[in-house]
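Ticket #4471: structure output looks truncated?

Reporter: J.K.
Steps to reproduce: submitted the chain below (624 residues) through the standard prediction queue, then opened the result file.
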Amino acid sequence: MCGIVGFVGTGNRADLETMTTALKHRGPDGEGFHIDPDRAVYLGHRRLAVRDISGGDQPMWNISGTIGVVYNGEIYNCDDLRAELCAAGYVFRTSHSDTEILVHGYAHWGTGLAERLNGMFAFAILDTDCNRLYLARDRFGEKPLYYAHQSGLFAFASELGSLTQHTKISRSLSSIALQKLFAYGYFPAPHTLYQNTAKLPGGHFMTVDLHSLEPVIQPYWQFTLAADDALTARDDEAIAEELRSLFIQAVGRRLVSDVPLGIFLSGGVDSSAILAAAAQHVDGSSLATFTIGFNEPSYDESSFASQVAKHVGSKHHLRVLDMEQARDLIPYVLSRMGEPLGDASLLPTHLLSAFTREHVTVALSGDGGDELFAGYDPFRALGPASLYNKCVPRTLHRFLRKIAGMLPHSNTNMSLDFKIRRTLMGLSQPQSAWAPAWMAPVDPESMVDLFDDPMRPEDLYSEAMELWESGPAKTRLDRLLQFFTILYLQDNILTKVDRASMMSSLETRAVFLDNDLVDLCCRLPAHFKYRNGERKFILKKALEPLLPHDIIYRRKKGFGIPLADWMRHVPQNPPLMPVPGMKMNWVKSAWDDHRQDKADHRLFLWTWLSLQHVLGTPLQTGAE
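Returned output as attached by the reporter:
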């Protein structure tokens, strides 16, 4: 895992070094530069040494020095690609570096390189013969890639905070992106916080001519649900066996490392499955597992994790934290994000990553399992919500929503009152906007009161609504799967995990995003994922030979913190630095109402804190 930066055009070595230094946390093991004044090309790299420790320095070049790469990620099918390229006559100078695969792979396949890779990656390849840059991002955007294009300059970086270190890139806020942040809780690609900056969507590549600096973006892969009739005809046992085989294979691919490796273990289905599958490759006692526990019972899953670790025999590491101690880390975590994010599970994810990094450099994670196999609460709510929407008149709905707003506010994790209010809020919108509205920091009606020039709902949720309505006719479940996998996974979950882990220089590997495993998921009819109220139906069935029944079928808890309670006390003085285009009276009222327990604005307040810190407001954590 690493950090990459670069630019073509206006700028100098000082810009490059400042941008690269901003990514030191992503690569503490070394740095490398390439500067070509004649072409005005500048490339920088920070390295976290994981594979081929002695031979993987970057930028890396082919023998003739015409093709060079800076790269962040891991290529899991690199051995197969190396064999294919060797057979084609390419000579490798490193023993097993996956970086060199990109150099020779580009020479052999050109811009078709990205579609041949099974892994997580963001890279930039300089082709001096063709005078162009070729940049690509993995299928789901597990690894980040930001860029800016303006007169006389094209620049890119692994993080927005690094990109904006270039002296010619402004930090003027994007009013559209700002509204989408509070509508979604994250920035849907290609939006970013600032004008004239963007993020390359997952599954896309970009070419940039070194003379015109004009970027041309193309997709090389898209997540598409297309039920295979042949799979429909097969029985559950056969599908479960195939899924189990592919999952074990995906885990095996991610166990390859030249540095110590471990596994995040929450005790939930996904992380438990990874541990059990890893034990099919190596002895369980050689596996290291890591769990963060909390002293608040409704947020703690450590007993389940310990049960799974004991079942497999892993070397288990557990750290139980006091919630108040964890709370005090809010300023530290938000100060290192570089961009706001409305997901407060960023904090426990960082705590887990920091704890894990004390022992290993790489960790396997279960990200993607809920999105691919319908694991979230909204998948279960979809049927009742559709019936409610069909049968309940709008006037009665408005009355019920008003009553729900009067319910006492609970501080427990995913409490019933919280779910009721969020569900009814979403049902006030068209079906195509249910999913983002259910999870929105600010409900669409309140956006009118929060922003001076509010967007229309169809523009605000354009990405989600287009996904819901696009393509051939699908079930509602398929449409919801598209939302969670294409938008929420990429721009929220993977962004959160990347930043939280890289703050501690920890590489994480998402097993469920393996190409072969995802390809099967795309072909599976929806009833294999959700059946008779059972989420992750076929995944759980596939795991029955590997895990105890009570672990597979226990109630899902989630990875959260007592955010509603915290926001009543933290920070002591709510930050109220004005933001252009936003109405501060509404912001202040939201803080006051939440702290007086008149309303539950936890998601908005966390998103606001995150934004304020990025914009430069110091935060305090002292209780009143």
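Triage note (M.O.): checked the attachment and the full token line is present. The two ends are 41 Å apart (CA to CA).
Status: closed, working as intended.
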